């Protein structure tokens, strides 16, 4: 186990309501989507008087494809999102058994962390459902130390 990632575990997670911008995006344009989506989501939430319920997330749907990743840039909220316009929509991550792992450090370690988590899931004979997510527990700051970033990654599992 590296010092940047803690041991994976399986936990029961409740459903999570989200305000999202969802697009299929080429891999090299993912940062652009995040940079565009989060300000729009936070503005829409402020305009509707809804406060975030937890740290922002990225939710991946299905497997990556040649055209890119089906990605929801998301902010957890207490109730289903009912605002309209601005390309912001409602999404709910269902309650599920979820394999999780905490990654500490730069976002460049995410790919290796997912590989490790999926290998761990496979070793245990578990089956992913096709929903994976990452939750950005610390907000990166310009000029900040990326080694201080904490990202919780999760992969929903089939079965009870």
From TrEMBL:
It holds the Pfam family GyrI-like. Residues 6-158 form the AraC effector-binding domain. InterPro entries: AraC_E-bd, GyrI-like, Reg_factor_effector_dom_sf. SMART domains: AraC_E_bind. This is GyrI-like domain-containing protein. It comes from Leucobacter manosquensis.
């Amino acid at each position: 186990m590296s010092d940047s990632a803690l041991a994976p575990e399986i936990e029961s997670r409740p459903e999570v309501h989200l305000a999202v911008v969802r697009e299929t995006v080429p891999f090299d344009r993912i940062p652009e989507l995040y940079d565009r989506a989060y300000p729009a989501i936070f503005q829409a939430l402020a305009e509707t008087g809804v406060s975030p319920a937890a740290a922002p997330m990225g939710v991946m749907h299905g497997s990556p494809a040649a055209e890119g990743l089906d990605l929801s840039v998301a902010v957890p909220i207490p109730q289903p999102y009912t605002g309209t316009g601005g390309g912001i929509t409602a999404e709910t991550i269902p309650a599920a058994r979820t394999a999780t792992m905490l990654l500490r450090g730069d976002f460049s370690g995410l790919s290796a962390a997912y590989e490790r988590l999926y290998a761990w899931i496979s070793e245990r004979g578990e089956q992913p459902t096709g929903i994976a997510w990452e939750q950005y527990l610390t907000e990166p700051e310009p000029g900040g130390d990326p080694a201080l970033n904490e990202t919780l990654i999760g992969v929903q599992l089939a079965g009870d």
